[in-house]
Amino acid sequence: MQGMPQAHSYHCLDGVLYSLPEALEEVFMTELEKYQAFHQRVRQRKAEIPGELETLRAAGKGKTVQFKELMAEKLTMEMILLQLRYAGLEE
User: Fold this and answer.
1) 16, β-bridge pairs
2) Does the predicted model carry a pTM greater than 0.70?
3) Are 25 and 9 in contact (CB under 8 A)?
4) Per DSSP, what are the bridge partners of residue 9?
5) If you average pLDDT over residues 35-47, what whole number do you get?
6) d(C-alpha 64, C-alpha 71), whole Å
7) Residue 13 neighbours by CB under 8 Å, 6+ apart
8) What is the mean pLDDT of residues 45-50?
């Protein structure tokens, strides 16, 4: 005997139409929303860091630990976005 058919919802992601059982929809959307928030934070941080570096340079702090840590963070943000681009998730 077969159970009741599950209701499905449809979502378009990057031009691909996905059918999800409604029971999984909340989990899927939560994960998608988490990813989107992460991606936005990485992009935002990448845009903020050059200004912070310039402020430190202007203050003569181009050789401080703080400056070097900020450079490392900048490179990390760039590498994350590069990996996302390789995966087709970043333009």
Assistant:
1) 13
2) no
3) yes
4) 20
5) 94
6) 11
7) 32
8) 97
